[in-house]
Structures are given as structure tokens and as C-alpha cells.
Protein 1
Amino acid sequence: MSDLLCFDGGSSNLIGTTSKNVLDFDDDSSKKNDSMKDIFSIGKQTLPINRLTALPKTPTDMKVDASLIHEAGSLFLQLEITNNSPLTMTNFQMQFNKNVFGLVPGQLNIDAIPPNKRWGALLPVGLIPPEITTPVSSRLEVAIANSTQQIYFYILEMPISLLMKEQSQLDIANCANLWNSLPNTMSKEYKGSGLQLKLQKLSTFILVASKKVNDKELLMYTIKFLNNIDVMLEITSTSKGYKILAKCIDKQYLSFIFKFLDGLFN
């Protein structure tokens, strides 16, 4: 267990520099994979958005509340840990499972949490080269260890909006080439109005073209995820709302972006 969550030998004070799975300390890989599926399996359970959820096998002597926030151009985990045990807890370590966005936690600089006391901080969340073979998901699997020699397992259902990059500079001239190069498409129609106004408030959706086609307004947007995957949208107004065509190099992101758009119309 001493190797759990180790960041390059445990000597670095920088944001996590590894994306090993939380159960990589298990030498039996078949047992490891079965254990992970069992521990992180939640079936069709709906999780609250942006609130850390403890999994059934997680001990209850430590309570952890956490949510992902964007502040001053960076991601942070707003974190609070409560020690519900009669013993002082030390030697805290946290790790995220391999994820397609390359998210890694900063080091938990906690000296100790006495019994029935709380500790809180904004923990930096860094980015490393992502695991491109990992399924696209907004669910972040989290493990925390401490001096009790127990492992605490959680899932964070991340807001999709926080997984997109803010884009201040953009080569609009290249967007036509990008649109033509993206092989996978998906379309969906929505009823409603005011979509353009909603998108104007988002620094992650960049309007790159606007024109009238057969008396219908056509808008084109570009989005970039934290792992530099581009998605482009063509939005056409209809008599009842909008028709949206999305294009991406990886088709997994198409259903992902429509999940976000669904939320704008709900």
C-alpha cells in the first residue's frame, strides 16, 4: 500500500505527474481489473453534478466534500476533509484514475487532521498527456489514502462546461479547413429560442461564421476540449427552434457535446 498514488517516487511537490490507475499497486492485473470494475461500478445510478460521491465500499471514518471550479484561468478542486474517527489522520494522498482529459490532482499538503476536525483548501488540478484510449466520460474516479491504511473511493460527475478550454485567440481563417477535415458527424433538432444569447455568455464557444441561407440564420461555432480535441457546430434556425450539426475527429465527443447542449434547452 505504500506505493499507492505515488508521484514519481513521491518526491515531487508539483502537480501530479503520473496517470497510473488507483489500483496499480495490485501486482495481479486480472484481480486489479476485476476489483476496479467492482469498486467503481454504479450501474445506472444518477450522480449529482459536481459533487463528490462516496462509493459503497468507502469507509465512513473520513468525509470528503469536493467540487471542480474554474478560477483565474485554472482548474481547482474545492476540497474539504472531515476526520470522523477517534484517531489523528496523516499522510494524505490523492489520485485520479486514468482519464481522457489528462486531469491530475495537486499534492495534498496536509500535516494532520485531528479527530472531529475539518481541513479545506483549493487543490490545483493539472493536465498531463491524456490517455487517448480511455473512454470519453465526465465521470472522474478518485482515490484517497491516509495513515489509517484504508483507501477511500469516490466518483465526481464533472460539469462538461469545465472540460472545455477558454479560447481567447483563434485562427478563424483555418476553421473552414478544420470543418472539412473532421470525419464524424451527428445532428439533432431542438425546440426553443435564445440559443445564440446563451452561447455568447460562454467563453468556450467561439462564433466563427454567421450568415443567412434561404432566410434561415446559420451560425458556426468551434469548441476545444482540455485535451485539445476540436468540435465544430453548425447551427441552423428552424420554424420551431434549431437544427445542430456537430463534427469531430472522434465520434465519442459528439454525444458528449450534445449532452451539454441538452442541458441548455432543459
Protein 2
Amino acid sequence: MPGARGTRRGFTVAEALVSGLLLVLILGLLLNVMVPVFRSWLRSDRRGQAQDQCALVVARLREEIRAAHPESVAAISDPVPAVLWVSSLDPQGRVMYDPYNNDMLWQRRSAMYLEPESGRVLFVETPDVDLQPSTPPGPVSRLDNPAETSWFVPVSAPRARVVARNIAVFQVAWPDGTPPGPLDVRVESEVDGERSELITALVPLQSPAPGQPASPSPVP
């Protein structure tokens, strides 16, 4: 109708300011909630990564130590933290061990060690000259010195296989200083300031009682 005033109008300056302030307030509240949640998620994720790295070290070491004669296991701290052993695992990962005669049908020297400058745990085994069946089959004591450590020279990847990364502490020791018994293992990892620690005990090949057969230690 002529002369009728429209019902639509634009925002006044005051209304625009109020709307803007409300939007800023809502965004601020969301940030106050979301930022701590995001930071907590990041910390949890980093802690989970650290836990995973510790678990990788223990899982690989458990698989190896279960096939190692206890008299062959040696832990050293110089030149790097390391554990060395003679394993009865053949190239297919089978425990080549005669429980009735306590004989290792396959023998190879292996080591797992921490590379402090990189935080990596590495695995290395002896050259092909030692990667062979024990002929004739015999107990680990038939080696010149089963706990010998002079053969071990730390090397970096790719000559050594990377087991885990971001490792800060790698400690392996017999509780009483000498075998037999469970082997104490402590691994600590740090990922962007978040740390995780894993402490466990691993059991090598069980030496038999006199007149009794031995058997490889079960994997927990």
C-alpha cells in the first residue's frame, strides 16, 4: 500500500556489536574446552607411542631369550648397554633344541643393544661363519666361551636391524648377578616429553634337573 512502511530493516551498530561479542564469547568457551582436550589427547598419544616402543623391545627379546641357554647370556654396559646370548633359533625361527640331551642343534651369537645417540635399540647376529648347525649337536658349553663378549662390536642400521626407537633406558641383568633364573629387563621410552617404562622378567631355556629332560621356556 502506498505510504506503508516495510517490516525489514538492517542491524544497527549496537546489535552488530552485541552479536560479535556473543560470537567471540562462544568461540572463547569452545577454545577453553577444546585446547585442554586436544593437549590431553596429544599427551596420551605420545605416551601410547612410548609404551609401544617399550613393548617392541620386550617382545623381540622374549622371543630370542626363550631359545638362549642361560649360561650364554651376558649383560654389558660398555661400550653400550647390551645383552648378548647364544641362540638355538634357526633361520625359520624354530627352537632347535634337544630337550632329552640338553643339546642345541643350532647355535648363533646374537645381541640387542641401545644406540644412545639415536635412541634406537638394535639387533645384530654373528656373521655366517657362526650361523650354522652345531655339528655334532652339543650343549652350549661346547663353545669355547659361551658368555664371550669380545666378538660384539656395535654397528648401526642397516647392518643391524632396528627393533625400536625413542628408547632412553635399556637395562638387562640377572637378579643375583649370575644365571640361572629369570632375566630382569627394564626399558624406558620417551616421545616428545612423555615417558613410559616397562619392567619384566624373561626366562631363557630351562636347564634340566639331573636325569630329567629340558624344554624350551614357554612364551608368556
Protein 3
Amino acid sequence: MNTTLEIPLSAELVTAYYAASPEDQQKIQQFVQIMLEQMANPERHSLQSIAQALTDQAEANGLTPDILEALLHADD
């Protein structure tokens, strides 16, 4: 069962998210979900291992650092 979580973000990030393709939006959602799942069990994961897992998953889903940077600076 999925539930919605509201997270305060800057207007720039919200705009970039909604301007992204549905596929990229799904990748971002997966990225956040993985991050929260990893943080839910902090005794099992160091911050470095969480960051590495997020990076690996994002890259596996096609969200490269270049794409992420472009999304974050779409309105610049």
C-alpha cells in the first residue's frame, strides 16, 4: 500500500520536477523511496553505504549525475 508524503521544497525544485518527463519523475520517486527505506534502518546502514546505494540505484535507472544536475538547474 502506498501513501503520499508531502516534503517542503523550493519552487525551483518543484518546477523542475513537474517539468521532467513521467519516466524521470518515477526515477526521482524511486530514488527518494530508496533513501527513506535505507534511513528507516540506520543501524544497518552507514551514511556512506546509503549514499552509494542511492547512486547505484539512480544510475541503474538512468538518472546520471548529468541528468540530475540538468533537472536541478532547468530554470537557470
Protein 4
Amino acid sequence: MVDTTGTTSLTYDGLYRLTGVTYPNADTQSYTYDAQGNRLTKVHNGTPTSYSYDDADQMTLAGGVAYTYDADGNQTAAGTDTFSWDAENRMTASTIGGVSGSYAYDGAGLRRSPTLGGATVTYTWDLTGSLANVLRDSAGNRYVYGLDLISRTDGSGAQEYYLTDGLGSTTGLADGAGSVTDTYGYDVYGAVRARTGTSGQEFTFTGEQVDSSGLQYLRARYYDAASGRFVSRDPLPLLQRYAYVGGNPVNLVDPYGLCSLRHPGDCAEVGLTKAIDYGADYIQDKANRIGIEKGIIAIGTGLVCAGAVAAPESIVLPAACIAGISGYLFAQEYQWVANCENVASGKLSADRAYGKNVLSAFPLPLGLLGKAVVNPGVERAIGRGPHFLPGLQCGSSVAEAASAFQQQE
């Protein structure tokens, strides 16, 4: 991997997990993992750090620092640092490095106003796209987006333009005259390795917010770059609920804090799980008023996303599908889903086969469609037949729906 600082050499294991890094300045890092994808060791320039975990994949020790968790899998202590959580598993308070913080959230569950070291900032979010983004804050900053964050204008009118890499990480800032004022360098998991300039802007690794607590806010959860792990359990029932992007941070991103985009298997899991979770409630609550066909859009779209999962070089379809399934879908026209299906139909090759294999690796009662088996509302809905998959007809059972998905080549 080559950038303006030189060449970074990378090695991987057979599961595409990063095992070794040599940076342009000759610094080295190496990693080993257990069978569940938890990091067992990190060796930095010859100095090792070992990690231990409990049966729930919760990290209990890292280099001698002890970690504790509540019953919901939220991290409550890391050495002398402490964390508090609400009933919806959102971080509400922290003490990190002796600095106290508190966090408030809006009705959409997004972080509205963190208070760190006595200073409070309130954010206004744009919810119209597939990914919620900060538009402005109470400090007077305004943000402009394209495919990534383009610029920040502060309260005085001064502008900063973001220079980014392939992951969307901020590598530099330029002023209105085009001069580079700040530079950023990261290790592979996002910890800052080099920094020049004095800008107080917070959007750094993968283009997401890292505040003065040192944690990165990824909407559903907070990420700790030092450990390469989230500090709370993934709300989705994936196999690995803490490790960041399956040990492949050079190629994958996780802006939702839910699944690593560009990874078909993870997006398949998200699609099906979200479809089942939201589809069941929606069908049961709304079917009498709007008709069963619209009620099963969530499930049908989940199957489409799981079977289609866009090509690895594209994150547009998975992002749109995940956003739709997770709540916005029900406000959209049926044509949105049809368009999603049409786009997906052109990508049902190796990626769909990958998604099929991910699904088939789970015993059905415990797997991604397992909830549907024991949920009469979902079983009835699928039984009335969304025609999102060839071979799935009116009257199809949940098992037949799973089979139709698995038979796609």
C-alpha cells in the first residue's frame, strides 16, 4: 500500500485478517487471533501485548489492564476508566484519563450533545441520506458532504477542506487558498501515529468523529482504536459482536457500528436480521391497515440484500438496503424496493454465493432465519409470498424461503 508517506507492507492469514504491518518509517506491528476472531496478541516493534476474553468474547485483560462489563455486554471499566449506560445500551457517561463526560441522544438515537471536560457541543444531523451525517454544531461549524466529507466552515467563515484516503480517513486539511495546514497519520486500526497542525476538527479515521475521549462515535456504538474493538456488544446477533471489521481494517469500514461494509457476509447478516426484527413488528401492527404486501417489504428486501450484496468495490447498495431495513424503508414507495431488487439482480454472482454460504453455515433454528421459525407473524407473512426470490411462491413456508435463498447460484 503506497501513499504520500511511502510504502506500507501488509500480510494476512487465510481468513483475510491482518497479521502484519510494516510502516514507511520501519515501525512494525503483528497480530494473532483466536478462533472467534478476537485479537490474542499485538507486537509493536518487538514489544508484545496479550489479550484475554471470557466466553461471551468480552475482553477481560489487555496488557495487564482489567475490563468489566454489565449484563448487557456494555464495558463498564477499563482499568481506572469508567463508563455508564442507559436502558437502550447507549453510553451516557464516562471518565477517561480523569476527564468526565456525559452524552445525550435525540429521538433517532443519534448522539445530540456530548459534554466533555465541562464543554458541551450540540449537533444537528442530516437524516435524509442512507447514512446520517452531522450538518452543523453549536460551536458554529457547518459541514458539506459529497461521497465523503468535503469541507468545514467555522463560525468566523474560515474554511477547511478535507483530504482523504481510500477508507475516507482524513489525511490532511487544506485552507481556502489550497495550502495544507494539517496532516494526519494512523495505524491500521485508527490510532493516531502522526499529527501536524492545530485544527480542532473531530473527523479523522474513516472520516468519523473522534472526540477528546479518544473513542470514535460510529452511530450505533463507540469504537476504541487502541484495542481494535467496540466498547459495547453489537445489537445484531452476529458471530463476533465486538471486534472491528473482522480483523481487516485496511479494506473495510463500519460507519453504522453494525457491520463492515464491502463484506458480503456481514451485510447478508444485517439484511436478514433487520428484516426479521423490523418486519415482524411491522407486519403484526400494520397489516390490517395497509395490506400484507407492503407489510412484507422489510423481509423481502432483507432477502434481496442478503442474496445480492453488492460487489466488494461498491458500498452503495448495502448502505441503502441497511438504512431502508432499519427504519426508513416503511416511509418509502414500493418502487424503492423494486429498484433495489433490480440493481441487486445484476450482482448475483460470487457475492450472492458468499451470502448463501454464510446463511447455510448456521443451523436454521439458531441462524439468521431462526427468529422467523419461532415467530408466527413473520412465518405468516412469508407464507403469503413476497416474490423477491425466484422459486419463492405464494404459500411458501419460512423453510422454503431459506431454501430458495440457498439454492441461488
